[in-house]
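Technical appendix A lists one of the benchmark inputs used to test multi-chain prediction within the project. The record comprises two sequence entries:
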Amino acid sequence: MHDPLIRRTRPADDPLSDFFWTSGADGRLRFLRCDKCGYFSHPPTARCPRCLAEGMTPTPVAGTGTIYTFTVNYQPWVASQQPYVIAVIEFDEQPDLRITSNVVGCDVDDVAIGDRVTVTFLHRHERWYPLFERLPRSSR
Amino acid sequence: MSRHPFERDAVISGAGQSEVGRRLNRSALDLTSEAALRAIEDARLTRDDIDAVTTYPGGYASVSHGYGGPSPHELQDALRMDLSWHMGAAEIPGQLGAIVAACMAVSTGLARHVLVYRTVTESTMQGQAGRTAVLETGDGVAFGMGAWLQPFGSVSAVNWLAPVAQRHFHEFGTRREQLAQIALVERANAADNPNAIFRSPLTLEEYMSARMISSPLCLFDCDIPVDGSTAFVVSHMDTAADAPRPPVHINAIGTRLQGRVSWDQYADLTSMAAAGASAHLWSRTDLRPADVDVALLYDGFSILTLVWLEALGFCAHGEGGAFIEGGHRISRIGELPVNTDGGQLSAGRLHGFGHVYEAVEQLWGRADARQVPGAEVAVVANGGGPIAGVMLLTAGRR
């Protein structure tokens, strides 16, 4: 996949979140899920923030969701960087399961709140960054 | 047993500001010493009367170049003070957390006169190479909350708050022409502030055609890095009888933290931490939004002022766009004058303490051409996203 970002600062190694950044190696996106009550917790927590039980397991999700909000960055923080889309994606499995990511593979002017998206992985510096592509609008 | 809120034990007895400008090439300690000595003199005190120092964010906060001032240790040594309490911290309820800590120090009896300061040298530190992102954009490693933002090029506060504006536009039909009024009204106010950076008029046409930084926020929605220091003396109420003038009272503070504290996880992203802090404020006072004469609302980005207007109840959630439409209501002659000094969009980014300074000047009747006649109640709000602190200040009477 062509990466729209010239630079991608990589996340530090972290025992709680390493699974997230390597999850895409097999093409699946995973989040920590409570073994007891089924709540997805992100950013990762060692206990369930809802029921406080121990036992959180990386669990695959479908990787589909909706653009909750977004922005197109125009300011060239990095020289020669072209505009790119930063979006907050809300996943289908749980209303408050969200990440900030990039929407790729379409014109930056062709992104709207409510657009349906699906995950795609960018493999760069030994991480699999979950990025998102728009699904056809007719499939809403 | 009922007791009045602790913050009413405290008053603001003096205010001082250093030279403020772009690329002053003066050190943070130099600017801070200037502001501190002016505040102490304004309170008709000496450095020997100061027995505590608090600041935001402390000397070692490396959020961005020039963001932190000197540490309390450096200032203590520079002014050779004898302190029973000091604190420099960023993980508190916004910039105002440093003032709240000062109130706690005097209310608990730990101190009598607390020097509180906030210093920025972002213009000098960032001015040579253009404005830098808050987070590093290089091939380094991202930690903490940055690890969930930086890897996706979300590296500046504008990238975290533009999505708030976008969501507000989507949910409530808010338009750029409405949001523009924050920038336009502040620019009009700045014309009467000799210390403001940009004082020439700004038109709606100029705003609408300005370059985008991070959509829908354009150049004029972003504040202006400056160098400067602002300082206050927070004193125990019992000292007010000896003061040169009736002090400014701290009627109530709002510091509540709730929800998914982050830039992207709040269930309702368009209200954020400001909602909790505002509810907390009004729970600690009998004053109501209608009693407020002047509002100094944080404006690192224009959208934050809109969020604070709604959070504080000056209009309903979602109605901020209509509230500010045309700009008259929030102008100096409107029903709720906002950011009468020109705010951070035109006067410069003193990072929240410029707002406190203007509030105090208004309540002391020292705002010259900017004076809101008879201003007796001011609300000051600082912060955005997961950061929020708010205070209600009232003019003292003897």
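Residues 157-172 of chain B form the longest helix (16 residues). Chain B has a mean pLDDT of 94. Comparable benchmark entries are summarised in Table A2.
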